[in-house]
Amino acid sequence: MPSEQVMKAAMQAYIDCFNRADPEAIAALYADDATVEDPVGSPLKSGKAEVAAFYKMAVATGAKLKLAAPIRASHGNSAAMAFDVQLNMPTGEAIIQVIDVMTFNEDGKFTSMRAFWGKSDMVLLKPPA
Amino acid sequence: MPSEQVMKAAMQAYIDCFNRADPEAIAALYADDATVEDPVGSPLKSGKAEVAAFYKMAVATGAKLKLAAPIRASHGNSAAMAFDVQLNMPTGEAIIQVIDVMTFNEDGKFTSMRAFWGKSDMVLLKPPA
């Protein structure tokens, strides 16, 4: 089981790789057989190819991630973090309030990611000028 | 599946019941066959009696819960929230930085709670006077 420090560093790397728009680096944080459920309640993306395609699309939106509170570890192989997805859309500036939960393998790679957010977590900050 | 609003209201009720030190009211938010894993990686408490006993003990510590960011829902039967557990211990004031994930049944009761926090999420704020 990876240490709390290893898990938290991987979560922080996820934020950092996303914010420098590097989908390959995000995909490299995942194990080959990892799954992504984003949002929770939607069909799983499964395996490195689907995960990489998902982040290529996500990063292309220009979205940026900002931690809302310090990253949490656990006494198991999981960690969690609350953050805001900052979006600059044709309809104005908006945020999506998200909590991601990751599980890890022995090598400190993500084996799963689940993103908790619903329609009520999308907040319009500023209408278009 | 309960609405996002119903799930978020139950999460907020959990915080409020905890802060008025009412373990029976917390237990009433749970389904009869619910499980609690707090922290993630520790043995499950299972069923209303074990869940009620856990909160009786937790509330007796005098701990208070403070949301660190708005409660998140999902597109499924789950919600999540980041909060700080505020503790006034003989060793000084401390917080535990936690993320709770709950699943829900059709009646809007918690069927499971998982609390993500590790040793590295315990922060000493002030040593004893």
TrEMBL record, chains A, B:
Active site feature: 14, 38
Cited Gene3D superfamilies: 3.10.450.50
Pfam family, one: SnoaL_2
Organism: Stagnimonas aquatica
Signal peptide coordinates: none
Residue stretches making up the SnoaL-like domain: 12-112
Name the record gives this protein: DUF4440 domain-containing protein
Domain of life: Bacteria
Residues engaged in binding substrate: 100
